[in-house]
């Protein structure tokens, strides 16, 4: 009987102890969340909307500042900021590759909080991005134009046409083939192809190499007035498909592309929306095809059939990367690390 009474006392003691413990104890390893903006946060350079995720922009890309609200992307509860005093509260820290020094000078000196993810982001091709060995195993996530990055943000994308959208009409044309270029190097594949193509068809070329300095309005007017536009990339890499494709598509010209293989382009846009140089044995054959389409307007117009279903959206440099990163972090709180960055990106 005494034994049973002692056992009962012990059970009561343990029960009371556990009740007190779970009533007053909270873990110190929970992921930080925000229910409101403090006064100091409102004064800092940040955007607040009852945030539950903080993204710290460690450096502005090429020094270009952007909006800190993600509402335009229908992404909410994100706190984007460049206030480094929030480092220990940030769920993600964005590092723009082209603004990273080779010796990592300027990187955070304090330990990385256990819940925080460092995000490498870059929109330049490997040919125009220097390898930095120290970065190889440093990051948790990648944000890039490549579809196989953790947070893919292409240069543009197609979305369905909505009933309220203006009906597309092909702009009036007074030029056959156009090309606007600023980065001119004789060894570039695109320059070598142009030098051959111009022998067989009239190409109206613009940009600083040709003594033309264009305004944004000039750029829009010229592309819209051309039947075909040379969407030639400065280097050829997987998924490296830039605004050189999406701008003429948006402005009503048919892009003639030089870049990754046709199959890769068709991962991004319909196959009947563009002409690929690889479809022809030589620049001469390409020129003959363009001249044929110029003389056969019904066949030319088939390249705009996709406009009945889709419209082009250009991505917002920097701004969209920060917001897409926040959205990813909201949905992926678990552990993640990215190894062999240099092998993945530079091969």
Automatic annotation (TrEMBL):
MF (Gene Ontology): 4-galactosyl-N-acetylglucosaminide 3-alpha-L-fucosyltransferase activity
Pfam family name, one: Glyco_transf_10
Enzymatic reactions: an alpha-Neu5Ac-(2->3)-beta-D-Gal-(1->4)-beta-D-GlcNAc-(1->3)-beta-D-Gal-(1->4)-beta-D-GlcNAc derivative + GDP-beta-L-fucose = an alpha-Neu5Ac-(2->3)-beta-D-Gal-(1->4)-beta-D-GlcNAc-(1->3)-beta-D-Gal-(1->4)-[alpha-L-Fuc-(1->3)]-beta-D-GlcNAc derivative + GDP + H(+); an alpha-L-Fuc-(1->2)-beta-D-Gal-(1->4)-beta-D-GlcNAc derivative + GDP-beta-L-fucose = an alpha-L-Fuc-(1->2)-beta-D-Gal-(1->4)-[alpha-L-Fuc-(1->3)]-beta-D-GlcNAc derivative + GDP + H(+); alpha-N-glycoloylneuraminosyl-(2->3)-beta-D-galactosyl-(1->4)-N-acetyl-beta-D-glucosaminyl-(1->3)-beta-D-galactosyl-(1->4)-N-acetyl-beta-D-glucosaminyl-(1->3)-beta-D-galactosyl-(1->4)-beta-D-glucosyl-(1<->1')-ceramide + GDP-beta-L-fucose = alpha-N-glycoloylneuraminosyl-(2->3)-beta-D-galactosyl-(1->4)-N-acetyl-beta-D-glucosaminyl-(1->3)-beta-D-galactosyl-(1->4)-[alpha-L-fucosyl-(1->3)]-N-acetyl-beta-D-glucosaminyl-(1->3)-beta-D-galactosyl-(1->4)-beta-D-glucosyl-(1<->1')-ceramide + GDP + H(+); a neolactoside nLc4Cer + GDP-beta-L-fucose = a neolactoside III(3)-alpha-Fuc-nLc4Cer + GDP + H(+)
EC number per UniProt: 2.4.1.-
TM regions (residue ranges): 7-25
Boundaries of every Fucosyltransferase C-terminal domain copy: 171-344
Membrane topology: Single-pass type II membrane protein
Keywords: Disulfide bond, Glycoprotein, Glycosyltransferase, Golgi apparatus, Lipid metabolism, Membrane, Signal-anchor, Transferase, Transmembrane, Transmembrane helix
Assembly mode: Homodimer.
Protein name in the entry: Fucosyltransferase
Organism placement in taxonomy: Eukaryota, Metazoa, Chordata, Craniata, Vertebrata
